[in-house]
Amino acid sequence: MAVNPDPKPGRWILPLVVLGMVAFTYFFIGELPEASTDTTLAVGVTTTTVPPDGVTTTTPGTDPGNGAVDPAVQAYLTELDEVNTSLQLLRTEMVTVNDGFDADPREIEYSDAEARMTTVETDTQALADVVAAMTVPVGFETSHQALTSAIDQAAGAASDALDGLQSDDPGELRRAAVVAYTQAADNFATEVENTRTAAGVTTDG
Asked: Nearest Cα to 68, choosing from 205, 203, 170, 199?
């Protein structure tokens, strides 16, 4: 009877299988294409600027997250722009009436001048009332005080100009009031622009 020199022939099967797997893996990796050196990964880059002192400054009325103007602030600025536009038209009307009344020969007669200056006075006071009733966003209280002061001065000057026209004064009071009115209107326009700058909103054009 022949004797089996290896009583456990199956013990060689597992090493042969492992060796075959290693050889196959080596061959498979060798067949893979090499990575291209020209490949560029598209990665979004966000740059954050931090002040030297490390303190972040937030502009009143803006969202510190994206710099957008708060809707309440934008509504406030829009209303100020509307008031300013109306005031500047009244300023032009005041100067036109005053100059026309003083022209030689006179271009605007007394009755017409009185009616038109009365309208300027009434409309300017109405604008002052609008400004006084506005909802002021937090951080704009001081600038709104300046705006209120300017529009109130314009309303007072409009009344003085009308009073001067209706009085026996030769014209000095009326002319001085017209100058005061135009200056107040200019001051209001300047304050509106300052307020827009503080809010981080610039005037187009």
From this structure: 199
